[in-house]
Amino acid sequence: MNRDEQHDEKGSAMNTSAKTKTGISWAWFHKLGSPKWFYGISGRLLPWLSIAAELLIGVGVVWGLAFAPPDYQQGNSFRIIYIHVPSAMLAQSCYVMLAVCGVVGLVWKMKMADVALQCAAPIGAWMTAVALVTGAIWGKPTWGSWWVWDARLTSMLILLFLYFGLIALGNAISNRDSAAKACAVLAIVGVINIPIIKYSVQWWNTLHQGATFSLTEKPAMPAEMWLPLLFTALGFYCFFGAVLLLRMRLEVLKRESRASWVKDEVLKSLGQRSGKGGAQ
Q1: Which of 16, 81, 97, 125 could be cross-linked to 163 through a Cys-Cys bond (beta carbons 3.0 to 4.6 Å apart)?
Q2: Is 252 within 8 Å of 39 (Cβ atoms)?
Q3: 76 with 157: CB under 8 angstroms?
Q4: Whole-angstrom distance, CA of residue 230 vs CA of residue 29
Q5: Phi, psi torsion values for 75, nearest 5 degrees
C-alpha cells in the first residue's frame, strides 16, 4: 500500500469518526424532544439537583449572613446581596433560556421546548420579583429610597412585565400550537432587554453599582465574602433546575395523558405508594 492510499484511508476514517460524533450529538438533541425520554432522565436528575440546591443554598446563606465580615462602607446591610444577586442573575439567565426554547420550538418544532418555556416563565417571574424586592430593601439604607427610576431598576421591571406577558399570552390562547408560536416570538423579541439590563450601568449614569460578581474578572471582594455568594448562586441555579424539572414532568404527564407509557408510570407510582402503605 502506497502513501497516497494510506492517506486516503486515514482521511476517510476521520470523516467517518466526525460524522459518527455529529450523529450522536444530534441523536441526543432529538432525544430531548421525546417526552418519554425526558421524563425518565429528569427523574434521575431531580434528586441530585434537589440535594445540591439544599446544600449549596444552606451553606451559602448561613456563611454569608452569619460569618462573612461586614462591608467597610455598607456595614451589615450588604448581606442581602446573598439573595439579591443570585435571584437577579437567575432572572436574566432564565429569560435567555426562554428565548433559546423559542428558537428551538420555531425552527425544529420541538414540543418539549414549549413545555420548558411555559414551565420556566413563572419561575423567572418569581426570581425577578425577589430581585426587585430585595433590591428595594437594599436601596433604602444605601440610597435613602425604596425605589428610583434608575436604568437598571427600570429594565428589571420591564423584565418582570415580559414574564407576565408570556404567562398571560400562554394562558389566553386556547390552541396550544398557536400559543407556543406566540410565546416563542415574544421570548425572542424580549431577550433584547437582557443586554440592556447588563450594560445599563455602563451606558447611563445610574445609581446602581456595577457587577458584584463576574466569571471573567477577579472579584473585588475578599474571598470570605464572595465564596458564600458563589455557593448561593450555584444553589439558586440548582434550585431552578429542580423546580423546572418538577413542573415540566407534571406538564408532560398532562399533555401526554393518553399515551400508554404515561398510564404505566401512573400505575407504577400508585403501586409503589400502595406498597409503602401496606408495609406500614
Answers
A1: 125
A2: yes
A3: no
A4: 30
A5: 70, -140
Amino acid identity of residue 220, one-letter, is: A
The Cα 236–Cα 83 span in angstroms is 9
The answer to whether 198 and 153 have CB atoms below 8 angstroms apart is: no
* Lookup result for grid cell 401526554: 256
C-alpha cell at 246: 418538577
pLDDT digits (tens, 9 = 90+) for 16-35: 554 555 555 566 666 777 89
* CA–CA dist 276, 280 (Å, integer): 6
Q: Is the C-alpha dihedral spanning 192, 196, 197, 198 positive or negative?
A: positive
CA angle in degrees (0–180, nearest 5) for 249-253-255:
115
Collapse the DSSP code of 256 into the 3-class scheme (helix H, G, I; strand E, B; otherwise coil) and give the result: coil
- Which residue's entry shows cell 419561575? 123
CA 15 to chain centre: 36
Q: Which amino acid does the sequence have at 274? A: S
Report the alpha-carbon distance of residue 127 to residue 244 in Å, rounded: 13
User: What's this model's pTM, rounded to 2 decimal places?
Assistant: 0.86
> Which amino acid would we find at residue 256?
E
Q: If pLDDT is split at 50, 70 and 90, which confidence band does 274 have? A: low
Residue spans of the domains in the chain: they are 87-255
What is the C-alpha separation between 276 and 279, in angstroms, rounded? 5
pLDDT tens string 140-156: 888 888 888 888 899 99
Task: Give pLDDT tens digits for 209-240.
Answer: 666 666 666 777 888 999 999 999 999 999 99
